[in-house]
Amino acid sequence: MRRDPRYRFLINDNPVRLEVHDLDNEKYGPFECQINEIRKLRYLVSTQESNLVAWLSENSSYDACAYCLSQYNTG
Ligand SMILES: [Zn+2]
């Protein structure tokens, strides 16, 4: 669920878990997205999936979330 309707993709900057979540496909299980544990909310400006893919390719230390963006997760 989006916290701000303008933003779809949330970046987790926690160094132990650098990843991006899709808030339109958030998973609420105890070991899944855990968005509410993320302290600092930083978003991709774009809501387009193609821009997310481009961002991930330019920011290789980040991965797509295994739960809400499993199609882009590289493990
Ligand atoms: Zn997620």
In words, what does this structure look like?
This protein is an alpha+beta fold. The protein has one domain. The protein has 1 helix and 4 strands. The model has no long low-confidence stretch (mean pLDDT 96). The protein binds zinc ion. Residues 21, 33, 65, 67-68 line the site of zinc ion.
Quaternary state, please? Answer: single chain
Beta-strand segment tally: 4
Number of domains: 1
Largest sheet: 4 strands, mixed
Number of helices: 1
Which spans of ≥5 residues are poorly predicted at pLDDT below 50? Answer: none
SSE succession: EEEHE
Structural class: alpha+beta
Percentage of residues in helical conformation: 10-25%
Task: List bound small molecules.
Answer: zinc ion
List keywords for this structure.
single chain, 75 residues, binds zinc ion, alpha+beta, 1 helix, 16% strand, globular
Please provide a brief summary of the model.
13% of the residues lie in helices and 16% in strands. The chain has 75 residues and is of the alpha+beta class.
Topology:
Blueprint: E1 9-12, E2 19-22, E3 42-43, H1 49-58, E4 63-64
Parallel strand pairs: 2-4
Antiparallel strand pairs: 1-2, 1-3
The protein binds zinc ion.
Residues 21, 33, 65, 67-68 line the site of zinc ion (ZN).
